């Protein structure tokens, strides 16, 4: 039986306070009842991890198809604008599932992730992938139909495709390293 004093003491220890360092915030998240319940559950952590990997597979799998089309290495018979238009809902849904499940995974192991250099590198690659995608949306998506019609992909769009491939390779590689190499 849990007495109210021990519950309140534990609960107060996991509350984020303004004077806390980032490391202390990560400890509080990991040690919270929610973080602990995810981490110690027989089914919850594996289920969240499964959603994370499936979201990654859907999102990045589709983005790789688009990136290969941009760099001229695949699906040349379908205009890039058509690929993007038809599959955008899918890769965004996959990304949302990957992101939300990633937040839950982080919550359950926040202190470990904070100490992990590979996790930090993964986040850098993820931020770069996001900036790269934003740049593509602003600079090239408005004119995609035009360059799809001419059959000439702008050099900058090809570069965006290569950057995307490299960034997602970094996210996946360092993500796996974080998950399985972290002690």
Walk me through the structure.
There is one protein chain. By secondary structure, the protein is mainly α. It has one domain. The protein contains nine helices and no strands. It has helices at residues 4-13, 22-31, 33-40, 44-71, 80-108, 110-115, 117-139, 144-150, 155-181. Helix 3 packs across helix 5, helix 4 runs antiparallel to helix 5 and helix 4 packs antiparallel against helix 9. The longest helix is centred in the middle third of the chain and has 29 residues, at 80-108.
What's the arrangement of secondary structure elements?
Elements lengths: L3 H10 L8 H10 L1 H8 L3 H28 L8 H29 L1 H6 L1 H23 L4 H7 L4 H27 L2
Helix pairs in contact: 3-5, 4-5, 4-9, 7-9
Main attributes?
single chain; mainly alpha; elongated; about 180 residues; about 0% strand; 9 helices
The percent range for helix content is over 70%
List low-pLDDT spans: 1-12
User: What's the SSE pattern?
Assistant: HHHHHHHHH
Total of helices:
9
Q: Supply Rg.
A: 21 Å
Bulk shape: elongated
User: Kindly state the mean pLDDT as a whole number?
Assistant: 87
Name the beta content range: under 5%
| Class by alpha and beta content | mainly alpha
Question: How does the major sheet shape up?
Answer: none
* Termini separation: 33 Å
Number of domains: 1
| Count of extended strands | 0
